[in-house]
Amino acid sequence: MKAVRFDEYGGVEVLYLAEVPTPEPGLGQVLVKVKAAGINPGETKTRDGQLQSQFPVVFPSGEGADFAGIVTQAGPDVAGPRAGDEVIGFTNKSASHADYVLAGAEDLTAKPPSVPWEVAGSLFVVGLTAYAAVRAVGIAQGDTVVVSGAAGGVGSIAVQLARLAGATVIGLASEPNHEWLAAHGVTPASYGDGVADRIRRMAGKVDAFIDTFGADYVELALNLGVEPSRVSTIADFTAFEKHGAIVVDLAWILSGARAEGNAAGAIAAVLAELAGLISAGQLEVPIAATFPLAQVREAYELLASGHVRGKIVLVP
Question: Which of 85, 96, 141, 148 could form a disulfide linkage to 166, CB 3.0–4.6 angstroms apart?
Fold first, then answer.
């Protein structure tokens, strides 16, 4: 089978497509033929060495966590997924950017027939992150919430989940994305100079703030009078030490899932909930572009360009 690999830290130039053996499922595992797999900024930071101290890479390395596909083989002790089942899942083995991926049976949920492959295949990282960020700030009916990076992969889902929770949502985004936000019940606002005054004119009091971009947005939230416990960020990793704001990353999500019981089972349950909302027409995951595996470098170049609405997806 073909799989994306890299043998050293670096830019997109270190990525290549390799021919590797198709893995065999062991105890508790299933083999899935990948139909779609999302790409994420965290993979770029892992590949170029930014996260080397936290997540050192063993070379040669694969990449990718999100995927959706068709089960082709199940391990001998697997009682759930069977060959032919269409599933949404995740792997923590950096392995989904490939023709086939091994996954734990408990890391999968059924893909509703009406959910497109490219949407299902890009759901795990952004869906779980947005879900966790919205829950972290305790959104309730009648709250006013501001979301930075509101048209990005995480932000575009967070604004919709906040709306479903009953909040009035102000989405900070570039003007080309304002129409999309308004169509989803979000009040769009341009970022940049004067943004605090624009938000005050729109909202008066802001109850919660979800930052998906970084920069100075946590400070903006505090200047708007938001309590630190109702500010979450997925991009400012010093925010907790400085301000007490909630930092949402994959480790935080997994810790929360463990606190509720079985981590993988809890995450698969959230994937199922999000897929159900998509199937019911209550949640949209915008797809910016799809690329074949052979164009993985081009996919990450587009991601690095910024101002991409929604997700970029690899389609083996």
Answer: 141
